[in-house]
Design goal:
Blueprint (H helix, E strand, L loop, with lengths): L1 E9 L2 E9 L6 E4 L5 E5 L5 H10 L1 H12 L15 E4 L2 E9 L4 E5 L2 E6 L5 H27 L12 E5 L6 E3 L4 E5 L7 H14 L7 H10 L3 H11 L2
Parallel strand pairs: 2-4, 6-8, 9-11
Antiparallel strand pairs: 1-2, 3-4, 5-6, 7-8, 10-11
Helix pairs in contact: 3-4, 4-5, 4-6
Protein name: M48 family metallopeptidase
InterPro entries: UTP_pyrophosphatase-like (IPR053136), YgjP-like_metallopeptidase (IPR002725)
Pfam family, one: YgjP-like
């Protein structure tokens, strides 16, 4: 039995799915309550045929995912008031708003302290925190990238450039020229999760697609990548 992960693009959607090869006669597609897409396939079915089947069933998959989504608890909306907790590098920090003439954000003794002339303005506080996250994301992501590069020193690929912005549905992306873009929200995860995403994208500089070769490479470089992926999804769901 073998299990691989892949994805297809359907309109504006990227549909990820796992393929499990078993001794069986027919190919089946199922959508789990957590929205995972699982394909069971006989050993002799070409991967291109599996992708084509998923593409044909994409509209049905999206309907199933939308159905299950209505039963999932939604994360409470941020109110940006004192006492609320916010994540940074995997740790929870309690927010404290302090009125001041100059706006700035600092970590002080385990608290995320926002100095602002408008402490009652939640939108302004949200903007200050976003700017603070962006600044620290640029620094932390670059540091983790430098720690990851030696793990792939035996391979030839373009020296990557690192960028970050808020992304809607993915943690990162990579261009053939070596431009890696990370979701700024990753700064809320711990460094091991950030390293997983960076290594995932670096592996794409060697193996562009989510093929079996790609996952063999990722498992060689990062044997516990599945545990890190699950940890990331649970922490920032």
């Amino acid at each position: 039995m073998s299990v691989t992960e892949s994805s297809i693009t359907y309109g504006s959607h990227e549909l990820a799915f796992t393929v499990e090869v078993r001794p069986r006669r027919t190919l089946s597609i199922s959508v789990h309550p957590d929205q995972r897409v699982h394909v069971l396939s006989p050993p002799d079915v070409p991967f291109a045929q599996i992708q084509a089947r998923v593409t044909r069933r994409a509209a049905w998959i999206l309907r199933q995912q939308a159905y299950f989504q209505q039963f999932r608890p939604s994360t409470p909306a941020r109110r940006y008031v004192s006492g609320e907790t916010h994540l940074y590098l995997g740790r929870q920090y309690r927010l404290r708003l302090e009125e001041a003439l100059k706006s700035q954000v600092k970590l002080i003794r385990g608290r995320l302290v926002v100095h602002t002339p408008r402490p009652a303005d939640a939108e302004h506080t949200a903007q200050l925190l976003r700017q603070w996250y962006q600044q620290h994301a640029a620094e932390q992501f670059q540091a983790v990238l430098q720690q990851c590069l030696p793990l792939l020193s035996e391979y030839q690929f373009p020296m990557p450039t690192l960028h970050q912005r808020y992304l809607q549905k993915r943690w990162g992306s990579c261009s053939p020229a070596g431009r890696i873009t990370l979701n700024t929200d990753l700064i809320r995860a711990d460094k091991s999760s950030i390293a997983y995403v960076i290594l995932h994208e670096l592996c794409h500089l060697i193996e562009p697609n989510h093929s079996r070769r790609f996952y063999r490479l990722l498992a060689k470089i990062l044997p516990d990548w599945e545990r890190r992926k699950e940890k990331l999804e649970k922490a920032l769901s």
